[in-house]
């Protein structure tokens, strides 16, 4: 099913646009998006849109004000006090759920209200969370990426921490994604539910530079969150003017909490550059597409990640173009056991109307064998999809080619599992020159004795009379080994003016058919 | 009433250029078989398992220094011994996702699949040109010490330095600009002709032994190449599907349609992705005493509403038949499960998906 449509939000607050993975699938199977909008122009800080609504009424199916959110938060009865301010919308891709999170000025709690999209006319509040922060204050600002793994929502937030002055940090949060309310207001509870990405020097694209990603354009901070066995894997694609790369790190759930009020961290030791695993100069992933290059490296291409279900991970790089802003070009990589195939380039053209300006951001995700692409300008997200061939999943684990000096042959499957049935079939045209005849017998001269000493393959014959329908198959044995009689007779086939004959076998045997004759009785002309 | 034995006409051509009800004297269908010069029918040899590879990608075959070699659509490269022993020789994956085209030099076998070309010289695969000067290419060939490769998405082709397949200079390129179209196919024929085909035209270049330029254009004809891998050399001519979707053979500038019996079938192909003609570039399938070309449209919808149209063209007798596999679930013919074929050791091998098959002709 192709996903085509647009959501006209009014005007978007691009700072809160999650990268790459934002589609929501409603309970009704329709596609939705939840966005932070420019409240000064739209009158609403958050809007939920319906892709299939295609920009018209009711494309925006829900407006949420600060008061709406506070009322919903109060309705969850989590034992909170004071006035909270909502900051961030966090979608749970591929599900009907999204959070709107917030904090309270000064100190206290980090909270979220969980919404569920049922249909274009029904969005309900189904749960929420409240975590104790400990000291200082947190200022969640922007959701950088989000994904659902094992029923939990993982999201990167770029946050300010501390009070009254604060530092900018990037955090990975694990948020509940069931329709219950989770409350843990003990100090530092947030450390039970998150990891802090430590900072390693400014302007290094090998680092997790939180302030840089906070201040930089969206294109500099592409995170993708994926399952990696018992761990969580995180892929970050960095595309800075001085270089590019793809980095991978893992988050170990089992890491012990320090117990001293300091957060668990993801630091440099957890990070590796995996660009080389792709067998392709990864720096070119977003740059070597045919077409005019974009003037900068910020918002022009965006990776997204899909798990194909067979252990492979697919990276899609989409890129909008300044010269032809109605087009997106897609490159696709598959990562499997450290081996990646570069799987070609697909050009996607959306069918919506023109953009107000060049697309500011491209997002893509996989849905079945389709890549769904959303292009955002200042006011809307326009969606379309393109089908790409799905490579067959590998069935054999690759050997380690760096350490295996002599590779071994895999154990062969049973021979019968790889037999390719190849039916031999011969069908004549419609023979009419005989006039009206009765076929009293059909005789085939063919090499026989093509079976073995036990089994006898069979030749099948049938006729189509006056193009009405085919007779049942008549079958005769082609002879066991040693059988030399070359003639087979199949009996009569009735009367007609228009004859078509078909000969076939599906057995594994030679076929050498010399001729076929009919015994005909002429009835008319 | 007259009574007697009458021969059913079976020695005619398979004719699929009309609706089946309009076929009077031709055959309406011939699957997995062929008509011999005696007018008798034989089954096309069945596929038997030769060996399994270490990944399930589509397999493209060639040979190198006495062994069968296989590159897969997953980028792996294998060397296969006569007994089916598989040696994985991948270090740098064969990149690009397209069909793998091979070219052999004195020292190596070069592979192009749409991105940077890769070489194998006995150890492990590696980039052909680590400087990155050589173009991203889908087709490469070898002629007189030069590796030639088309540049994807352009009307240019590049060449290495003579005898130095790994040395590429930024000025070592030519434009096949007889017509303003890109080069999409390239063949070096056994007669040392360089055939460069584009969507609208085909040009033939030859070596220029004197002077500073290694090649010159000799002639051009208006036969465009409809799909990049639908071209091969056999029978002292080039066979291709041209821009009008005709199956033609040309030698020099004389071109002739050879696929009229299948004209409607080729015209109605609804998906040309991964279509190929084998064995590229100049290894037709000579088996059972017959001389065949294989034309496959692997994603096209066939008359059974499954995927895959595969035509077997006997270029000596100018006859077609069809090849099919079998869909166990639907119980109808399905795509013939191969992506390439190659002949070595007097044996005929077919690349499947993670599998190499062998077609064994009956003895005698």
Topology, please?
The complex is a heterodimer of chains A (525) and B (364).
Chain A: E1 5-8, E2 24-25, E3 31-36, H1 39-42, E4 46-50, E5 60-64, H2 66-75, E6 84-91, E7 97-104, E8 109-119, E9 122-132, E10 138-149, E11 152-161, E12 167-175, E13 181-184, H3 189-192, E14 194-197, H4 210-215, E15 222-228, E16 231-240, E17 243-251, E18 265-266, E19 271-273, E20 301-307, E21 313-320, E22 327-336, E23 339-349, E24 361-367, E25 370-376, E26 380-387, E27 424-428, E28 437-446, E29 458-465, E30 469-470, E31 474-477, E32 487-489, E33 494-496, E34 499-505, E35 512-522
Parallel strand pairs in A: 9-13, 14-18
Antiparallel strand pairs in A: 1-26, 2-3, 3-4, 4-5, 6-7, 7-8, 8-9, 10-11, 11-12, 12-14, 15-16, 16-17, 17-19, 20-21, 21-22, 22-23, 24-25, 25-26, 27-34, 28-32, 28-33, 28-35, 29-30, 29-31, 29-34
Chain B: E1 3-7, E2 27-31, E3 33-35, E4 41-43, E5 47-52, E6 59-64, E7 67-72, E8 77-80, E9 86-88, E10 101-104, E11 109-112, E12 118-120, E13 126-127, E14 140-143, E15 146-150, E16 156-161, E17 164-175, E18 185-188, E19 194-197, E20 202-207, E21 215-221, E22 231-234, E23 237-241, E24 247-251, E25 254-257, H1 263-267, E26 276-278, E27 285-287, E28 290-301, E29 307-314, E30 319-323, E31 325-327, E32 332-334, E33 340-344, E34 347-351, E35 355-359
Antiparallel strand pairs in B: 3-4, 5-35, 6-7, 7-8, 8-9, 10-11, 11-12, 12-13, 14-15, 15-16, 16-17, 18-19, 19-20, 20-21, 22-23, 23-24, 24-25, 26-28, 27-28, 28-29, 29-30, 31-32, 33-34, 34-35
């Amino acid at each position: 099913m192709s996903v085509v449509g647009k959501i006209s939000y009014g005007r978007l607050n691009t700072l809160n646009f999650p990268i790459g993975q934002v589609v929501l699938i409603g309970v009704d199977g329709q596609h939705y998006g939840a966005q932070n909008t420019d409240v000064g122009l739209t009158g609403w800080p958050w809007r939920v849109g319906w892709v299939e609504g295609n920009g018209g009424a009711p494309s925006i199916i829900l407006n949420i004000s600060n008061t709406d959110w506070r009322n919903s938060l109060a309705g969850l009865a989590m034992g909170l006090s004071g006035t909270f301010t909502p900051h961030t919308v966090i979608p749970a891709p591929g599900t009907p759920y999204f959070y709107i999170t917030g904090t309270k000025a000064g100190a206290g709690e980090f909270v979220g209200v969980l919404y569920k999209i049922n249909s274009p006319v029904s969005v309900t509040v189904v749960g929420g969370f409240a975590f104790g922060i400990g000291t200082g204050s947190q200022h969640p600002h922007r959701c950088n990426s989000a994904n659902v793994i094992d029923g939990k929502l993982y999201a990167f937030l770029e946050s300010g921490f501390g009070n009254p002055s604060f530092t900018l940090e990037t955090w990975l949060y694990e948020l509940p994604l069931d329709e219950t309310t989770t409350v843990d207001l003990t100090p530092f509870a947030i450390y039970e539910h998150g990891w802090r990405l430590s900072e390693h020097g400014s302007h290094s694209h090998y680092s997790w530079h939180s302030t840089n990603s906070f201040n930089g354009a969206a294109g500099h901070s592409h995170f993708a969150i994926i399952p990696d066995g018992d761990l969580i894997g995180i892929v970050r694609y960095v595309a800075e003017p001085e270089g590019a790369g793809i980095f991978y790190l893992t988050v170990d759930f089992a890491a012990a909490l320090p117990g001293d009020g300091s957060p668990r961290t993801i630091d440099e030791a957890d990070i590796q550059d995996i660009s080389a695993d792709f067998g392709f100069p990864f720096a070119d992933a977003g740059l070597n597409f045919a077409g005019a290059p974009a003037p900068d490296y910020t918002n022009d291409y965006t990776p997204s990640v899909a798990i194909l279900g067979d252990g492979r991970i697919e990276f899609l790089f989409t890129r909008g173009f300044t010269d032809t802003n109605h087009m997106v070009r897609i490159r696709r990589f598959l990562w499997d056991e450290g081996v990646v195939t570069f799987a070609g380039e697909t050009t996607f053209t959306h069918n919506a109307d023109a953009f107000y300006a060049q697309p500011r951001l491209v997002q893509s995700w996989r849905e079945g064998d389709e890549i769904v692409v959303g292009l955002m300008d200042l006011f809307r997200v326009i969606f379309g999809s393109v089908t790409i061939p799905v490579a067959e999943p590998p069935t054999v684990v690759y050997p380690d080619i760096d350490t295996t000096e002599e590779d071994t042959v895999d154990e062969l499957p049973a021979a019968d599992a790889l037999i390719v049935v190849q039916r031999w079939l011969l069908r004549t045209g419609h023979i009419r020159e005989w006039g009206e005849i009765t076929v009293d017998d059909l005789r085939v001269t063919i090499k026989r004795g093509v079976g073995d000493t036990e089994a006898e393959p069979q030749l099948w014959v049938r006729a189509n009379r006056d193009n009405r329908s085919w007779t049942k198959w008549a079958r005769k044995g082609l002879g066991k080994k040693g059988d030399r009689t070359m003639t087979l007779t199949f009996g009569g086939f009735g009367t007609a003016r228009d004859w078509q004959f078909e000969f076939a076998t599906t057995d594994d045997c030679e076929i050498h058919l010399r001729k076929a004759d009919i015994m005909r009785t002429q009835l008319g002309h | 009433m007259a009574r007697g034995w009458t021969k059913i006409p079976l020695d005619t051509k398979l004719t699929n250029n009309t609706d089946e009800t309009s076929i009077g004297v031709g055959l309406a269908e011939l699957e997995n078989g062929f008509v011999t010069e005696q007018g008798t029918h034989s089954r096309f040899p069945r596929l038997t398992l030769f060996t399994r590879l270490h990944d399930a990608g589509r397999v493209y075959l060639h040979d190198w220094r006495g062994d069968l070699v296989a590159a897969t659509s997953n980028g792996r490269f294998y060397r296969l011994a006569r007994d089916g022993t598989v040696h994985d020789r991948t270090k740098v994956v064969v990149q690009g996702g397209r069909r793998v085209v091979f070219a052999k030099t004195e020292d190596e076998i070069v592979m192009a699949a749409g991105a940077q070309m890769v070489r194998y010289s006995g150890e492990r695969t590696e980039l052909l040109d680590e400087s990155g000067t050589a173009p991203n290419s889908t087709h490469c060939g070898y002629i007189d010490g030069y590796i030639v490769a088309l540049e994807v998405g352009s009307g240019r082709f590049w060449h290495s330095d003579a005898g130095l397949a790994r040395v590429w200079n930024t000025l070592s390129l030519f434009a096949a600009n007889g017509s303003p179209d890109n080069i999409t196919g390239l063949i070096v024929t056994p007669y040392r002709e360089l055939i460069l085909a584009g969507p609208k035209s085909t040009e033939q270049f030859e070596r220029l032994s004197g002077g500073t330029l290694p090649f010159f254009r000799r002639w051009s004809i208006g036969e465009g190449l409809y799909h990049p891998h639908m071209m091969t050399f056999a029978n002292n001519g080039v066979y291709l599907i041209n821009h009008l979707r005709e199956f033609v053979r040309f030698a020099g500038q004389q071109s002739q349609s050879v696929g009229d019996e299948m004209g409607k079938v080729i015209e109605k192909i609804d998906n040309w992705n991964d279509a190929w003609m084998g064995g590229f570039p100049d290894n037709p399938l000579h088996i059972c005493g017959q001389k065949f070309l294989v034309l496959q449209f692997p994603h096209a919808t066939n008359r059974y509403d499954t995927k895959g149209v595969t035509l077997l063209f006997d270029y000596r007798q100018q006859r077609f038949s069809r090849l099919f596999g079998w869909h166990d679930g639907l119980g109808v013919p399905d795509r013939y499960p191969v992506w390439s074929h190659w002949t070595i050791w007097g044996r005929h091998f077919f690349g499947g998906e993670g599998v190499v098959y062998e077609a064994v002709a009956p003895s005698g």
